[in-house]
Amino acid sequence: MRTFSSCKISSLHEAETLFRGYFTADRHARGVTNERCGRWDNWGDELNEGDGVQGVRQVRELRESQKTRESQESQNSQGTQPKIGRIPALIAAVVIVGVAIGAAAGLLTLMLYGVEHLALGYVENSQESGPFNVPVIRRLISVTAGAAIAAVIWWLLRTRSTKVPSVKKAVNGDIMPIWQTVVHVLLQIFIVGTGMSIGREVAPRELGAMFGQRFARWAHLDAKDTRMLVAITAAAGLAGVYNAPLAGTFFAVEILLSDITLETVTLAFSCSVLASWVASLVKGTHTFYLIGETDGLFTPDYMAFALVAGMILGAAGALFRRGSQWAEKAKPSGVGILWMLPLAGLLTGVVAIWVPQVMGNGRATAQLSFSSNADLAVIPILLLSFGAKAIVTLLTIRSGASGGVLQPGIALGASGGAMLGILWMQIFHTNSIGMYALLGACALLAASQQAPLMAICLVMELADAPINLFVPIGFAVAVSAFVASRLGGPLAAIHLSKSVKKEAN
């Protein structure tokens, strides 16, 4: 018997019709149900309690979402104006929320350091980017216990409370509940601090989105301005935690809004700059990645390398993007997280026995690549780091964890760029390993996120790289983004064909 949750529902009316057909003898509704969800052969069988609960939950969530949209539409139709005028309200939002999310981003960073110190006995920095000197047994206990604790809390949060929507859904109007969002955010920082392989950048973005929503409702902004404000404040969270205002700006306009206007860019950049500055006052500032000596006056062979690496890492980025999407869609929604996430933590700890840089958000893996020697003997180590980081990160997401893939993407790209760079340097004895790893990080991140401007700015800001390197790196990013966009369709088709085949069986 198929469950109600397998149906694709697009409206409240449709949900109620399908629900009625599933649980009643209404012939019309049953016909609609058969058409939309496939045929149930044994209508006389008793239904599972969980099916009913799931169906009720879907209908309730759709009703609440519809009420929110209707409220916003009604507000717009009535021509409701902000309390203090539109422009003053937006300026006030940028200032107030920018300061708030900057302080929150700084505090989240300090929380990460605190969890690392308590769980692993070290605090990540440019010189010690990972738990390399932490005893093996402590790594294993830390990541396993952290995953087990997070699994229980996430299970309670997701099954016994209001669901926390994604940032993109929040931008499109879904309401982010206050205390559930806060708990959700703290859990993400907690698991990264204990050693789980996932990025921490989603947490401040969710806080920023929640702050933006609350201010928009207080100021009586219309739906369009609310959407813009939520995107801007969410991106400011990214800028604050990594001190990367340009990356925050482009994350808002390139990914969340897909809308580049003078007003949007101005407000997004202002909010990101303010958040970055306030966060730096709280947590301090330092170069996130040390890439060694780099010459801004790049050589011609470096441009050729950008073309080759862009194509290879563009394909790798497309595969990582597809893998991340699969892992996110396949993550457990019920009790499965109670055993899957601790198991993922245990496996991470086991892998970390030989590959300690796999733990955390990816900083250790990337820094190892930036600091590598241009020696063929290093390639197996980099290849092992690349494979372990990719597999463990996807496994972590698949097991039910929430978090980002920006830092893991940078780690994979830096490893790939360093490997290709070492091979390249055997022929062309120019440039440094850091320049090749830097280019690789930008290229793979751009391909996996389909956001070339954000990718370039984020990596360049984190590494404090020479601005002249925008030329070859921009070329590599353009190539990688193009390759990834061309591969996106075939990869999606393969995934679809497998799903269709599975349904047929």
Topology:
Blueprint: H1 12-23, H2 27-37, H3 49-77, H4 86-120, H5 136-159, H6 167-171, H7 178-194, H8 202-219, H9 223-242, H10 245-256, H11 262-283, H12 300-330, H13 337-354, H14 363-370, H15 379-398, H16 406-425, H17 433-449, H18 452-463, H19 470-504
Helix pairs in contact: 1-2, 1-3, 4-7, 4-8, 4-9, 4-11, 5-7, 5-13, 7-8, 8-9, 9-10, 9-11, 10-11, 10-18, 12-15, 12-16, 12-17, 12-19, 13-15, 14-16, 15-16, 16-17, 17-18, 17-19, 18-19
Q: Which key terms come to mind for this protein?
A:
72% helix; Clc chloride channel; 3 domains; globular; disordered N terminus; mainly alpha
Describe the protein.
With 505 residues, this protein is mainly α. The radius of gyration is 24 Å and the shape is globular. The longest helix is centred in the N-terminal third of the chain and has 35 residues, at 86-120. The model is unreliable at 1-6, 8-13, 16-59, 67-79 and 496-505 (pLDDT under 50). The protein starts with 11 loop residues before the first helix and ends with a helix. It has helices at residues 12-23, 27-37, 49-77, 86-120, 136-159, 167-171, 178-194, 202-219, 223-242, 245-256, 262-283, 300-330, 337-354, 363-370, 379-398, 406-425, 433-449, 452-463, 470-504. It folds into 3 domains: 4-77; 86-283, Clc chloride channel (Orthogonal Bundle); 300-504, Clc chloride channel (Orthogonal Bundle). It contains 19 helices and no strands.
